[in-house]
User: Fold these one by one.
Assistant:
Number 1:
Amino acid sequence: MSGNHTAAAQAAKRQRGSIGDRWRRLPRWQRVLGALAGIVFLYYLPFLGIPGLVYLRTDLADQGSAWSAVLFNCAVYVIIALGLNVVVGLAGLLDLGYVGFFALGAYSVALFGSTNSPVVKALQVKLGLPQDWAVAWALCIPIAIVLAMISGVILGWPTLRLRGDYLAIVTLGFGEIIRICARNLDGVTSGAQGISEVPGPSGPPAAGNLFGIIDTKPWYWLALTVVLFVVFLVRRLENSRPGRAWLAIREDEDAAAVMGVYPFKFKLWAFAIGAALGGVAGFLYGSKAGFVEPSQFDVNLSILFVAMVVVGGSGNMAGVALGAVLLTYLPERFREFSDYRVLVFGMAMVAVMVLRPQGLIPSKRRARELHDRAEEAKVNVA
Amino acid sequence: MSHNVENRADEARVPLLEIDKVTLRFGGVVALDNVNFTLYRGEILGLIGPNGAGKTTCFNAITGVYKPTAGEVRFDGQTVTGRRPFEINNLGIARTFQNIRLFPEMTALENVIVGCDARHKTSVAGTLFRLPRIKPKPHELPVVDATNGMVRSWQSLRLACAKAFGISRHTLEERAGEAKAMELLRFVGIADRANEQARNLPYGYQRRLEIARALATEPKLLCLDEPAAGFNPAEKEELNQLIRRIRDNGYSVLLIEHDMRLVMGVTDRIVVLEFGKKIAEGSPAEVRENPKVIAAYLGVQEDAA
């Protein structure tokens, strides 16, 4: 009896489909309206006044709650998760050195935009420029993107011949190399001392800036705008020739190559796109912080980034965004228990891996691939 | 399928694929030993031999999965040996696999579109920025056919934009790819399940989907690796018809197959391999009578004397 009941319930559920299916079945104008409403809500978020939600003990700058600063962090990490999702979720390449690109983005705005950076000082002397000259903030954006992309290609060129775990190890090394270089190249990065006076959109940190440290709402809106732009671009990639090539490579690289897909080229592109997004995220992070130093970019952060993608649902943009928001917001919200953060974090990871290995909002394809592999493993054991 | 239709009689005996003294060793194992044969344009060449004779290895040497230890493969006047698999595909050689290797999570249609993508150019930059813009041909322009006023003005706006700024190569290729993929699915007879995941398709459909995916790369030569494995007689007959139709559309076919009735019925010539060596070559009738071939398949009696 109960068996029948559950079967019927399952059939009904299948008919209704998941939330995503029901969403896709709506008429186009309803989806556009829904998306617009969602975007408006996201921009409104800093004014949201739900006491338990927005109460954060980060610092006292914003009347005891740095709600919009945390929102900004969430947005930056969402950009990172979206970028890493291109590499890990779409192309299926495990990259454990993603923090390297994040650091490069932050250091590009610091090295070229801050009057305190050795690079800018050297340029001032060489070109006979005034003491307060530095590269404009807006010009640092393309610098950050290009530097990150170039480093992505430099990392990918020799290493993308490796597969699976080997690639993961090499990329792990890359993340460390960037951090160690940043710490030891005193003449370029001022080493462990770090670089201060990193500019924002309204110039170097100063009182009365629109993009200041007291009121961080403009920063959040800026980052959110970048997030929306990134979502727009990555969606274009997903449903197109490169997106299909990535999927084909992930599913069967050799068969894809025989069908005319050049795996190396598309894997390198995935790396470059991921690196560029990591660079953009680092750029935003560095400009908001106003101060960049090597210890902000240690290897734990790389692991955290991968965790965001895996917990949220590798391959699905909504999933990885949720993963990024949760893994940024929850540690801030529960700062009281920060001594136990690592413990809770570990337990949560184990719980997700046991209960929902495909992630919170999985990509349909990814979930099935995982399921198939589990079935194969069962068969092999039996 | 208007592609490639030419008069085959005129160009008979023009070599398309030349296997020239190809040897392939894996350590001490000689998988292919000085194999020579030629496939002529427009013909269906059968490659047969007992299990382990080196047929699939030969395919792998042709399609760049393995590099021959010695010898050369030439295709359409160009050296194939040493090129990477995707380059060889671009030259015009497509293949299917003995153990089906589709992209299981993609739909049937998407699988074929991946094949079509082999001839497309739009890469990451073109996809992101929708460049370059191409002046559309009249039939590529958006249609204005809605009766609803708002929708109609939206369509008119799109038409005006397409006329003024052109249409991106990405969009044109996506449309062309989808249309061609659908046509190929109809050609192999599985269009009714175009939007189903490849892994959920019945076995026979998967085999035919592999053929459609290979054809989508617009090859001159199609290599089929045991396409009839696991088929019942009715399905084999359908496959026979399909291979003939493929040839009639101007493709050359290299066919590995164990089913003798199919091979003898469909091929123009046959090459027989045994233990990596070519032991016979000729028309089906000649090969059938060849004592070496009979010995290879049935074995020789040790105490024949």
Number 2:
Amino acid sequence: MSEQMPIRVAVIGGGCASIAATFELTRPEHQGKYQVTVYQVGWRLGGKGASGRGPADRIEEHGFHVWFGFYENAFRLMRECYAELNRDPSKCPIADWRDAFFPAPFLGVANDSPDGSYSKLLAYVPPADGLPGDPITDYQPFSVASYFSRTAVLLRTLLLTAQSRGGAGDERKDRPGGSFEAEPNPGAGSAARPQDLAEQITRLMKYGLVASTAGLIQGLGLLQAAFTRSSPYAGETVVRLMEAMALSARRQLELALSDDADLSMLWQTVDLVITSMLGMIRFGLLTDPRGFDAINDYDFREWMKINGASERTLKSSLVRGLYDLVFAYEDGDYDRPRHAAGVALRGTLRSLFVRGSVAWKMRSGMGDIVFAPFYEVLKKRGVTFEFFHRLRNVKLADATALAPGERPYVAALEFDVQAKIKDGKEYQPLIDVGRVPCWPSKPDFSQLGGGDRLERGKWQFESHWDRRKVASKSIRVGDDFDFVVLGIGLGAIPEVCGDFIQRDQRWRDMVAHVKTIESQAFQVWMREDMEALGWPHPPISFSAFARPFETWGDMRHLIDQERWKDNPGAIAYFCSALTSAEEPAGYSDLSYPRRRHEQVRRNAIDFLDNHIGQLWPNAVRHGRGFRWELLMDPSEKRSNKNVGTGDESRFDSQFWTANVNPSDRYVLSVPGSPKYRISPLDNTYDNLTIAGDWTSCGLDSGCVESAVISGRLAAHAISSAPRLEEIVGYDHP
Amino acid sequence: MSERERMHRKDPARTAPLRSFSNLYRRPDAANGRVTREDRATYEQADSVAGGDPLAQGVELAYRVIGRYVSEGRRTAEQFNAEPYSLLSSTDGVQQLLDMMMRLQSEMVPLWVDTMRSMLGADAPQAPYAAGLRARASTNGAAKERSAAVSIELISSRPVRVSLDLREHSETLPLVSLGLRAVDPDIPALTDITFVPADNGDGRRLRICIPDGQPSGVYSGVIVNRNTGETRGTLGVRLD
């Protein structure tokens, strides 16, 4: 082979990690050194982030996606992608990354009461300096010094916020600081009355109490750490005394705040922050060569408890929201919340370094905003996309044929070809919706050979259980590819990597210990707007609400992106973990996805009937009982008078999904499991690297940023670029 | 192309993140972002002082840690007065609270630096902090004391990566490893690790023996002064 011949890379899967790896390997700086082919099951890219346009061009997602402001790697690549794409804003309304993403500063959690009711705690998180993906100008943002500094700023912001709540009435709505807001305060706005003045003074005292207690506990903790290090034995009595003082201070404060929901929330936030920082010192995480991984055998709540967090804080909606955010329930069982402490702490601290906004929403579907632009850029760079290719086996070279010292390697990749394109052409996957290139929810059968037959036969290309194919294909190392990036989901690994699991204990450990779960989601389009439904607040990302759909995204911004005969008044997305089935579904259990789909439908109907009234009081009758006539059927007009009161069958016109395909399963970071992850940098197999949020990638949690970091690492493993120091946050304690 | 001409991946320089604390204070990479004028001045001064001397670099590292923290604290303190919160000027209670927060901040810094000192070793200076840092750095940096090296002897039938992080002047001390352990407590520790005088009599030789049946994974542990029990460094082994 001459040196000028391109190196051929087979990328398996089209999710965030695979696309990030492809984007890196085909950068112009490589001057065409890497020739990449992406093999994708079905008709669209995106993996767990795939979306499609359904009836009325409505957007249909796997779940509710937001990008957090600390997704530095993801935003950096996304911005580079849009810059390279160079869309003409006069021809495409989503031309720049700022068109594609917009700040979502309103967050909320539900606070549950013993009687089963929920109160709402809403927060406006003020904008931070810079924008995600900007060059990092701090000396080293992910340093302990920076964390302490940012923590001090956070505490100050929280305390100022509490003060303004106590004395400023409605002025808080316009104030630039962050705010917690509980249920509407009847006394707000009438600050001149004597009784209100007394309330404000009382509140100010409580506020001072929070600040004093925070300072006391933080100071005690630091003293403890200093004592322990300088004299581990002699200082024991003093350390115990300080522990007792901190415990007493916590209890007294919680007693004083028990009648004030938002001050309690403030204190719980402060308690979490302080406890985390003190725990870092007490556990010696600052010097441990394993960094925060040293505490990954603990559950996050367990570790926080060891470090003094109060029971009330640990049971708070804040902590529950943290678990909800990452579906951290083993087997989807809410009675088994499990999240590795080191992973949780790292993620929480990284979130202190948001830039621009704490969270960002996408102006359209994630497929349209993320994967269509990447597809277009990568096509221009010469990447080949082989749609309708389902990986069946990654075949290792015969171990007995390896030369002495030769590392094992992938000899062949075996695929089912699900469909062939007519006349040997290339599949054109995108459609135009309002001048925006988008992915459809169904394949374009007209482009497929025998497409009519496939459509009539209802071929489910993305279903793990639909094994129909039109051909088989095997590509071989040397003949067809040189390197492999395996970017499928972890749930699919056992089926396609049998050789690895048979020969390699580390792969056996990985698939045994790194857990995944199924997830569920549903979306509703409603005739009335959010205010009419009884939600007067700004568009929110809301969590810790009633199960089984504890996370809600107000997606009203998508109304103009869809093509309804009459626009809906509101759009809402819900998602959560899906409790595992009693029996694992075998590959021959063809009805399994249908049963799970029906279960999600039932879950959604029950949820709307029994719980949604606590968020949208006008969407229900007499406190519960969803008004089914609110739901818009794409085949109807908004003004249709024949709907009547409707019944739950109207839900069938909405969208819901049970994400049960093995590759769609969400990866968890249960205690004790991160050490079993394998890095994309691992070179046990000479021509293979792995990519996905399930790999050992630094963050080690299920999210877009983890996947992108992993993809960049995979590219590094093959090309030595990007340099590891350029991967933001990879080298983090 | 035949299979015999198969391409090979280069061995990576490393296969895991650098989680160590000291790494956090390395120089930011030019490709990773701009360097501020203040930082650049710090680097230039540090370069001129530290050169390639390990002792001076260690001192510089400690100063960077503390100097940066003080700088961040100052910046935070400035923000207290700079940001236009209308409530600040109008409410005495808030002003008092800010005073309290400032006191808290000022009390935290010495505590924090003390903690840092115990972590980084005796070379890091004590409070008062900012003003005295440069002078001490220059003094210590000028010493230019060259430390003896530690060589490593590895006895293993499988590929092993070793990372050794020793504090300055440790090479002449009676060092001992307390064993290297994996995160999983069920995995047996690596215990056959000894320090012996180097063959040429200059410095020490670290001898690591890996049993054949040892499970793959990452093992880590501390190295201590046998006489005093003081921690002198860390040792990590990755066994493929």
